[in-house]
Amino acid sequence: MLNLSLQTTSFQELLMIMAAALGCGLLIGLERERSKQRENQHSFAGVRSFTICALLGALCFAFGHIFGMIGALIVGGIGIFSLKNQLQDPGVTTELAFVMTYFIGALCIWNITLAASLSVVLTVILMMKHSIHGFAGKWITGAEFRDGLFLLALILIGLPLTPNTPLWGSVLNPHIILKLLTIILVVQALAHIAKRLLSSKKALMLSSIASGFVSSTATIAHLGLQVRNGEVDARSNAGAALMSCISTLVLLFIVVGGVSLAWLKLLILPALIAIAILALCAYWLLHKAEPVEETEPEDSPMFSLKEAVIIAVTLTLIQAGVYGLELLLGDAGLIAGTLLASLFEIHAAAAAVVVQGEPANTSLLYAMMLGLAAHAVSKSINAAISGGLKFALYFAPVQILHMLVLIAVLWWNTQL
Q1: Angle 376-381-384 (CA atoms, 0-180°, nearest 5)?
Q2: Chain centroid to CA 409: how far?
Q3: 286 with 237: CB under 8 angstroms?
Q4: In the chain, is it the N or the C terminus that has fewer CB atoms within a 10 Å radius of its CB?
Q5: Is residue 53 within 8 Å of residue 27, measured between CB atoms?
Q6: Strand partners, 171
Q7: What's the pTM value of the predicted model, to 2 decimals?
Q8: Do residues 324 and 267 make contact, with C-beta atoms less than 8 angstroms apart?
Q9: Within 10 A of 148 (CB to CB), how many other CB atoms are there?
Q10: Which residue has the higher pLDDT, 261 or 184?
Q11: Of 348, 368, 351, 370, nearest to 359 (Cα)?
């Protein structure tokens, strides 16, 4: 209904439009009325004014676009008149909301659902005045604001403008490299936010699980670097690193299940047992770890760009090395290629195996098991390099154990 005609539109449709405009105006107006009474302010518009404004928008545009624009000028003039005559209230929020209410009422003619949604969003924004001001002025620090802007610029400007063409075969893609760097920065930012919002142990557990869905390898490297820098305890961070490995197995379900149900049925029991082992050991490490006093400065950054660049470059070089070896091995390198690819990303390696055929193919089964084992070893080496010997001694035995159990149960399933 892009062009409303009063002659052809039924009374029921007109009534529904006006009722929707009435509801939108009432919702916004009630919030403004409560705000006036709560803060003892003398604002130019309350519940009746906003309700009439929404109805006026629907009525004016129902007569045509010319009447709609005339009504918009009138409403805008009322807002400007209010600004000039209410010098004790320098804000423009109510006046802007008044103008927007007019157009929300008009929008009811074309899309009632969108108009109602916008009225709810506007009401929530108006109602959260003190929360938003407190967040912007007190809760978020200057360093976090700068890092957040940098991260948004990287996602919204840097990634779309970066060429998405590999420089060598299918690897060394600038877009993929920048995307990997962005993922690592997001991992660090999530850990920082969780640390501020939650207690130390809960923050480690929840942020590691969430970050593991982005990149478990990057999460382990970040946790290890914290240990190496002496910021946190090796035992608790090792437990958090194991929690991120749970996300790896859950993602493995999703990737494999999206390609082959036969492989999913084969993997689900071994993976669930492995998840249980990881969860129990991680909880034990985190439970036994001594609480660490936060020494983080008040205006601390959300992430370390230097650490993120080091991790991204390392993983990119590994990927390039895998591609070079695959070129040398040719078609005979299925198992070797899967083994090496698993050092970087198990999900891509598993998908490459699953698309080749059913689990009855012994070569594919061997490739899957070797890939899983290689990935466990790769994560253990990653932990040792990033976090040092103490961090690796807590992390690696459980990492190897849960993967050995997974492979053993997987092999046992194939023999049934």
Answers
A1: 130
A2: 34
A3: no
A4: C
A5: no
A6: 168
A7: 0.55
A8: no
A9: 13
A10: 261
A11: 368
